[in-house]
Amino acid sequence: MRSHKTKPPLKSFSQPFLSVSSHSVIAMQASNAFKAAFLQKILEGLQLGLQTSENMSLAERKEVVKVSSDVAMAFARGGANWSRAIITNLSKEGKTKSLVRTMLGKDVERFNKPSHTSKKVTTKKILKRSYRIKRTVRKSFASGLTRSLVKKRTQVLKRIVPGGDLLSDELSFLGETLDYIVSLKAQVHLMQGIANAVDALNRR
Question: Where, per UniProt, does this protein localize (predicted)?
Fold first, then answer.
């Protein structure tokens, strides 16, 4: 018979979620279509936002890079609740409004349209993993974890995930959270690749 080793629980504020979802998130990867759309859109944003970089401060250039990266990630993902929230928030801010609208063009209106808060994420793999997480979280109550503590930690997590406070359904929220984490992971990986490419060109 095979022996099963028990893993020690994670000691973090999101233990009920991260302890059961970390392996699932690692296994999930952004699609090639996402990566292609992200790279195309961020290059457009950097080209538009840094046209007058000689007259911009370092803080302003960093802001252009950050906004371009966030808009590119939201655009590449499409109609997720969190992606809509990112575009809506950025398109309202005075400093970033112009760049966001220039990058997205007519698509900005599509992202700013209100979405149904009860709508579940449509990705089948995410829904399946979210359902398994939901069952595991329920089992954790038997281990002495109170409902009030889970609710408190969920509220904290909802403040981290863009648009998370609009989702009242637990399954939809978990699906959105996983989707957001996968997209963030791809964003970091692609941005690192861009930084490495620029560094290599500067060394020539």
Answer: Nucleus
